[in-house]
Amino acid sequence: MSIQTLMYIGGRLIKGAIVLLVIAVFNFFLIRAAPGDPAKVMAGEAGATDELFLQQLREQFGLDQPLYYQLWVYISNLVQFDMGITYRQQMPVFDLIMDRMPATLLLTGAAFLMSLLIGVLAGVVAAQKHKQWADSFITVAALIFYATPLFWLAMMAALFFSVYLNWLPSFGMETVGANLTGFDRFVDIMTHLILPATTLGLFFTAVYARMTRTSMIETTRMDFVKTAIAKGMTPNRVTYRHVLRNALLPVVTLAGLQAGQLIGGAVLTETVFAWPGIGRLMFEALFQRDYNLLLGVFFISSAMVVLFNLITDVIYCVVDPRIELSK
Amino acid sequence: MKPLLKVENLSIRLPKGADREFAITNVNYELMPGEILCVVGESGSGKSMTANAIMGLLPKAIQVETGAITFDGYNLASLEEHRARKIRGNRISMIFQEPMTALNPLMRVADQIGEVFLIHTELSKKQRHERTLSLLKDVGLPDPEKMMSAYPHQLSGGQRQRVMIAMALALEPSILIADEPTTALDVTTQAQILKLIKELQEKHNTAVMFITHDFGVVAEIADRVVVMEKGQMVELGEREAVLNNPQHSYTKKLISAVPPLVAPERPLLAESAPVLTVNQLCKTYSTGGGWFSKPRIVKAADDVSFELHRGETLGLVGESGSGKSTVSRCVVRLLESDSGEILLGDDPIQALDAKALAPFRKRIQMVFQDPFASLNPRKTIGQIIADGPIAQGMPVAQAMQKAAELLALVELPATALDRYPHEFSGGQRQRVGIARALAHDPEILVADEAISALDVSVQAQILDLIEQLKQRLNLAVLFVVHDLRVAAQVCDRVIVMQKGRIVEAGVTKQVFEQPRHDYTKSLIASIPGADWRSGKTTGHAKTLEKAYA
């Protein structure tokens, strides 16, 4: 990597940090703007409605301070990489998030790889069979998955494959109380993974399929493809050596978009399938008005988006020589 | 001598709904070993169709109806695909019009050329590398070692076309098909590429089928010529015979439409106050640049000064990137200049805001290059023409009345008023573009490459029209043009630009006959077929001369 590239990446990281800081401030006000009071939620759960107890709770979490002071405390802690303590579990926010991270990454990563592989493959097949039945089938299927709401699909899948067919488990990441180890545990997790990963990945599979198909058909009309055919190449060679590589450029952009959602994008799926990941953590934190935890999840999710934007740009520069990072 | 390739009674059917039934009908010609056969015609003449049929590159919807293409005992028109692939790129190869898009942007030059060896030969990786390197040397690319690992976007248009030629000639084919290979190039680059093709053709005794619309190119390199019109072959003969003694009326028409390279004597214009004065105009473009990087700066106009008088045509000539279009756009304030003075009569307009500029806008109007993109497809011709005057405050009925008069002026039927742009040909649309510009009764007409998207015979008509209108309305015309033949015919004075600077300016005849600057000299020397028709006056020039008289 050249000095210029490193300079560019360094510059982008600095820019990213500034963007994150702005997002953090914005998130702070966003959450405060929502109705609800964490102290009341907690007191309610403890069965106490005593005004004095509420006051104590507020003091304990610093919620009695003026808003600007709270913001100052939050931001100055944040720049020291301290996201505070959750109100409820009384654990450092960062530790709690890291605790849930593997489960989420497993789910979203699996969905990501699946949608990328199947989506691109379906797109290539559809483009090659342009205007034949395989093309129509893929296009229509992609349209259906593109248009169907995720949570509905998730519930239907659980209903059909778990309740009706009893093939796959419908919730959780592991069989409760089985205490499996080694390979058995791996298989157990994988069977639990299939349904949530598939439902989560279907939307992007559809997006990739449609994008790849359009892009392939468009690229096939380019002059350099004619040049390739005029060289005497076989159609397959033309497709894979010349068309596909060029057609995948817009797919990279989209994949970067999806990769940015690796952490924050699985709330619905995790909730429906009771997957013990960050999404569900956030969902619960929302109901408990656990400001610190919510802000922590928001922050980590935004950081991922910023990071993957940068990674996408670097990848872009690797796959497309016309793009220079220093510009 | 036995012909290398024989095209016999070839007819190719177009899909239903096309503007004619056959792309080409009963085409017959032979290609001899080692000759350059030029196939000439205007757009839509079917001149590329035969070449695509030979290469097996016809789109799926278009089929050879009858006839045969015989090469080496095979009929290419009905050959199985797997056999055709063995010939394609190996014994017959092809180069295309657009060097900018004909190479795969994601592959290195060496890989793209090496692919030809990979497909057709058993050469090892090392041998492929060596052969590719020697090819790059043969086509005269600078620093071939470095070129090997370059990507297409790092090369200029001319360099890319050299890479294409290297690729096409990799396996020393018997036939090279060149489909308008120099049309997208600047005139000096074109001259170099033509020379290269000719040299390599002589060295390897390759037969070349050269498709072009440009008779200058024909005069430069052809041995024999085929002339196509609307899918029919109208003339076939030796170069000298076709160029200097054409038999078919269409060929005669085409050739007479080519402007001769001699600037006619023009009456000196009476001294008058300039209608447009440009003083020390500067415009720079910067691209890229951000928080941490410096932008790239290009000077598109650098200290440009000139004057334009009533009744005068001033030519701005130069190659692409010379800044001639930038200057014309700055003058009509479509672009903001960085510094300098633009005076309409005595009024400076370069610093006026949009509101103050409005009354001046109608005094200087523009005709654009691309007649297909410059008319709003959702508006009728009448609305397109009347829009300007209405915006300037003319009542609608009066503006439409004026639009009708203008249509008559540009020789379009009055029925055109309620029709939409897509119903008209390129030439007709350009007439609409002119009518639109004239709707404001301007003093100055700025024509930015207004004829370069048109076929040569249509070009001549539009040039005549502009000339007549100029006389009739006493206009001043600023004519941005890259075609020096056109400039020689229509301009009273020319300004030659290079890299944003004026390198030479003067009376057209003088600049063409005694160019002072080296760049002007090289431009004029690069015009293809410069020796042909350098003395004769043609029908086209006569009408122009008449118009000037």
From TrEMBL, chain A:
<feature type="domain" description="ABC transmembrane type-1">
    <location>
        <begin position="101"/>
        <end position="316"/>
    </location>
</feature>
<keyword id="KW-0812">Transmembrane</keyword>
<dbReference type="InterPro" id="IPR045621">
    <property type="entry name" value="BPD_transp_1_N"/>
</dbReference>
<feature type="transmembrane region" description="Helical">
    <location>
        <begin position="189"/>
        <end position="209"/>
    </location>
</feature>
<dbReference type="Pfam" id="PF00528">
    <property type="entry name" value="BPD_transp_1"/>
</dbReference>
<dbReference type="GO" id="GO:0005886">
    <property type="term" value="C:plasma membrane"/>
</dbReference>
<feature type="transmembrane region" description="Helical">
    <location>
        <begin position="103"/>
        <end position="125"/>
    </location>
</feature>
<keyword id="KW-0472">Membrane</keyword>
<protein>
    <submittedName>
        <fullName>ABC-type dipeptide/oligopeptide/nickel transport system, permease component</fullName>
    </submittedName>
</protein>
<keyword id="KW-1133">Transmembrane helix</keyword>
<feature type="transmembrane region" description="Helical">
    <location>
        <begin position="12"/>
        <end position="31"/>
    </location>
</feature>
<dbReference type="GO" id="GO:0055085">
    <property type="term" value="P:transmembrane transport"/>
</dbReference>
<dbReference type="InterPro" id="IPR000515">
    <property type="entry name" value="MetI-like"/>
</dbReference>
<feature type="transmembrane region" description="Helical">
    <location>
        <begin position="137"/>
        <end position="165"/>
    </location>
</feature>
<dbReference type="InterPro" id="IPR035906">
    <property type="entry name" value="MetI-like_sf"/>
</dbReference>
<keyword id="KW-1003">Cell membrane</keyword>
<feature type="transmembrane region" description="Helical">
    <location>
        <begin position="293"/>
        <end position="319"/>
    </location>
</feature>
<comment type="similarity">
    <text>Belongs to the binding-protein-dependent transport system permease family.</text>
</comment>
<feature type="transmembrane region" description="Helical">
    <location>
        <begin position="247"/>
        <end position="273"/>
    </location>
</feature>
<dbReference type="Pfam" id="PF19300">
    <property type="entry name" value="BPD_transp_1_N"/>
</dbReference>
<keyword id="KW-0813">Transport</keyword>
From TrEMBL, chain B:
<dbReference type="GO" id="GO:0005524">
    <property type="term" value="F:ATP binding"/>
</dbReference>
<dbReference type="GO" id="GO:0016887">
    <property type="term" value="F:ATP hydrolysis activity"/>
</dbReference>
<dbReference type="InterPro" id="IPR003593">
    <property type="entry name" value="AAA+_ATPase"/>
</dbReference>
<dbReference type="GO" id="GO:0005886">
    <property type="term" value="C:plasma membrane"/>
</dbReference>
<dbReference type="InterPro" id="IPR027417">
    <property type="entry name" value="P-loop_NTPase"/>
</dbReference>
<dbReference type="InterPro" id="IPR050388">
    <property type="entry name" value="ABC_Ni/Peptide_Import"/>
</dbReference>
<dbReference type="Pfam" id="PF08352">
    <property type="entry name" value="oligo_HPY"/>
</dbReference>
<dbReference type="InterPro" id="IPR003439">
    <property type="entry name" value="ABC_transporter-like_ATP-bd"/>
</dbReference>
<feature type="domain" description="ABC transporter">
    <location>
        <begin position="276"/>
        <end position="524"/>
    </location>
</feature>
<dbReference type="GO" id="GO:0015833">
    <property type="term" value="P:peptide transport"/>
</dbReference>
<keyword id="KW-0813">Transport</keyword>
<dbReference type="InterPro" id="IPR013563">
    <property type="entry name" value="Oligopep_ABC_C"/>
</dbReference>
<protein>
    <recommendedName>
        <fullName>ABC-type dipeptide transporter</fullName>
        <ecNumber>7.4.2.9</ecNumber>
    </recommendedName>
</protein>
<keyword id="KW-0067">ATP-binding</keyword>
<keyword id="KW-0472">Membrane</keyword>
<keyword id="KW-1003">Cell membrane</keyword>
<keyword id="KW-0547">Nucleotide-binding</keyword>
<dbReference type="GO" id="GO:0055085">
    <property type="term" value="P:transmembrane transport"/>
</dbReference>
<comment type="similarity">
    <text>Belongs to the ABC transporter superfamily.</text>
</comment>
<dbReference type="Pfam" id="PF00005">
    <property type="entry name" value="ABC_tran"/>
</dbReference>
<feature type="domain" description="ABC transporter">
    <location>
        <begin position="5"/>
        <end position="255"/>
    </location>
</feature>
<dbReference type="InterPro" id="IPR017871">
    <property type="entry name" value="ABC_transporter-like_CS"/>
</dbReference>
